[in-house]
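Go through this pair.

…
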Amino acid sequence: MKDHWRTIDDEEVDEGTMLLMQRGESDFVIMVDHLTLMTSESNLSELELGRVPCMRLENRTDPRVLLAGLGMGYTLRAALDVLPSTARVEVAEINTVIAYWCRGPMAILTDYALDDSRVDLYFEDVAKRIRLAADGSESYDAIILDLYQGTFEANDDPDHPHYGRAALERTRRALTPRGILAVWTEETDPGFEGRLRAVGFDFETLRPDLEGPQHVVYLAW
């Protein structure tokens, strides 16, 4: 018989009350007002989101990667596992409590990925870091986005800060030549695909778990 779920921490965020729940030693769920955001039992798409684009940087000696958001840390762990010791990974996370949980009770899930010496953590919107790179700061070899809302909100919002057309144009400028944009979303999104094409990206899609949730990872370059 499995242990019961118990709430081990909570935090008020813009969307409501964010809860971290635990069952046993290594089962975790993060919820906001009864909506499950992520679970430690379902992470194949998050792992592929980090692993695949970073594997494609194998010929780059000092790859620079931008990742947002942090989640349970699985995407970060997968990226670190295939990146060289000379890599730099910038993590942008707007909720400080998420980083606290990843360094605390959930750290066992990812072998303390957030404490890796290659990682720099910024408590800010990833759009800010993309804008800095697009405006002339050092470019990224990969930009990896796993944001709560996925890509679909941008279909009704041309000024969406992450997935609108102007935002994607900035993201393309923030990448090195043949740099990779990797994006997690709930399912195939034709509107997002159209905007990728419109700003000059080629892309492919991955479906890591065909027997479970039809989550999609977009890889664009």
